């Protein structure tokens, strides 16, 4: 018996009868569903829950699907999106795909086609992050300097001036990358968690602090100080980098 978790499909459709039919077909196909009839319902749901895919009607009562997707992406939500619409317009299709939609289906549609399209997008979503070390770092990232050491995301290694090379964990690499990409600014623990662990991760600030302690100890063992990387009490951290004169 297949014990793998069922993917959750969020259905954003104002036609209640159609939404119920789609939900029934998804259940037959071994998926879970959650129905939202308005854009603000979708946003509220995704703030506190994870969905594998969003079926998004272009025309919702309180907002267009295009505006909703734009808002979700700006907030850091990367849930795959299949647009649903009754308009067979090439301009609409191109707009949907260019703004990052994963597919576009015109009503009326057959349920076998809908299920096949959903499965195809889910398969792509499963493999697209295969090269990720963390949410913000990939094995394709080039080595970079951090406080006198060289961080190599490709090999999960840090090379020190004393000639020693240390293997580090994925989360440490993600923290290095986030700090290096945001120099000279106060960074909150919340933003760091969202960037490295993901926006829906259940990670406490204390856990982040423990990773920072490991990084400090690592550099100390090799005679490097982290004066440029400081804790801002009650807020987070700052990585001060001198700008070239």
Provide the descriptors you would attach to this structure in a database record.
four-stranded antiparallel beta sheet, single chain, five-stranded parallel beta sheet, alpha/beta, 40% helix, 245 residues
Describe the structure.
With 245 residues, the chain is α/β, with parallel strands linked by helices. It folds into two domains: 8-128, Response regulator (Rossmann fold); 144-239, Orthogonal Bundle (Arc Repressor Mutant, subunit A). The protein has eight helices and twelve strands. It has helices at 16-28, 39-48, 65-74, 90-98, 111-128, 170-181, 189-196, 205-221; strands at residues 8-12, 32-36, 53-57, 81-85, 103-106, 144-146, 149-152, 157-159, 165-167, 186-188, 229-232, 236-239. It has a five-stranded parallel beta sheet, with helices on both faces. Helix 1 links the parallel strand 1 (8-12) and strand 2. It starts with 7 loop residues before the first strand and ends in a 6-residue tail after the last strand. The mean pLDDT is 87.
Our Rg estimate from Cα atoms comes to: 22 Å
Question: The CATH topology of the largest domain, please?
Answer: Rossmann fold
CATH superfamily of the largest domain: Response regulator
User: How many domains, as an integer?
Assistant: 2
Query: Could you give a short account of the major beta sheet?
Result: 5 strands, parallel
Give the N-to-C terminal Cα separation: 65 Å
Structural class by secondary-structure content: alpha/beta
- Stretches with pLDDT under 50, minimum 5 residues: none
Bin the strand percentage: 15-25%
Instruction: Count the beta strands.
Output: 12
Shape: elongated
What is the top-level CATH class of the largest domain?
Alpha Beta
Strand order of the largest sheet: 2-1-3-4-5
| Quaternary status | single chain
Which CATH-level-2 architecture of the largest domain? 3-Layer(aba) Sandwich
N-to-C SSE string, H for helix and E for strand: EHEHEHEHEHEEEEHEHHEE
